[in-house]
Amino acid sequence: MSDLIQRVDTNGVATLVLSRASAYNSLSLPLMEALIVEFDAINDDMSVRAVIIKGDGKGFCAGHDLKEMLESGEEAFYECTFNTCSQMMQRIVSLSIPVIAQVHGVATAAGCQLVASCDLAYAAESARFGTPGVNIGLFCSTPMVALSRAVSQKHSMELLLTGGLIDASRAEQIGLINQVVSNDALDKHVLAVASLIASKSRKTLAIGKSAFYKQKEQSLEDAYVTCSKIMTENIMLDDAKEGIDAFISKRKPEWQHC
User: Fold this and answer.
1) Which listed residue, 32, 44, 209, 257, has the most CB atoms within 10 A of its CB?
2) GO: which molecular function terms (predicted)?
């Protein structure tokens, strides 16, 4: 495991801690590469059924490592950085289990993109969000991809064009995060949500997450065709049969994750 990421597994929940506290967990190229490695490992780990991403130190993630990028000055390095970031964000969406962002402090630029890419997000009252690239002459174009898919057009454009920060309450209002939690209760709350998800069938979670993102890009008619087929395939699985029988028998299901 990279020293840039700490991983702690608890009862089916894998917590990944971004560990560049001195740089507000900015997404250096090595950190993004390390995250991709962790996501791939988790995808193959049948004991994990939910993932939490959080930041060490004073903030969640301040975006790309601008110092690293300025020191390079090479177009090839910039291209590699942005492509790797895009691959990493897409890994979150394609991961077979839910990913939860646990946000404290700042989540800006690619850090805000990371929040928007996760399936769920919870934030401390003190959290702040933004895409301030326009302030330094570098429009947040790749963060825009995730942001514009998470919140409405006008809310996305306001963040992107003004470069301003919004507080956690506003982030909840526009749908960037699920809920604001008190600073002291954030760890406990997010772990409780993740643990609840982890109590489900991993196979069912994978089917549902994949179906959600697939149908989201389709027309209403095509989405119903797709999801009707998926539900038919789902109900034929062992875990669906077990779950239905357990419900009828008023007992706790024993998942085989298949």
Assistant:
1) 32
2) hydro-lyase activity
pLDDT under 70: residue ranges of the chain = 1
Where on the phi/psi map is residue 250: left (φ > 0), alpha (ψ -120 to 50), or beta?
left
- Domain 202-249 sits in which CATH superfamily? Lyase 2-enoyl-coa Hydratase, Chain  A, domain 2 (1.10.12.10)
CA distance 75 to 186: 40
User: Does the pTM of the predicted model rise above 0.90?
Assistant: yes
C-beta atoms surrounding 90 within 10 Å = 15
CB-based contact 242:253 (threshold 8 Å): yes
**pLDDT tens sequence across 165-206:** 999 999 999 999 999 999 999 999 999 999 999 999 999 999
Degrees to nearest 5, angle at CA 189 with 129 and 151: 35
Instruction: Name the token pair of 51.
Output: 């993932």
**Burial category of 198 from C-beta neighbours within 10 Å (exposed 0-12, middle 13-18, buried 19 and up):** buried
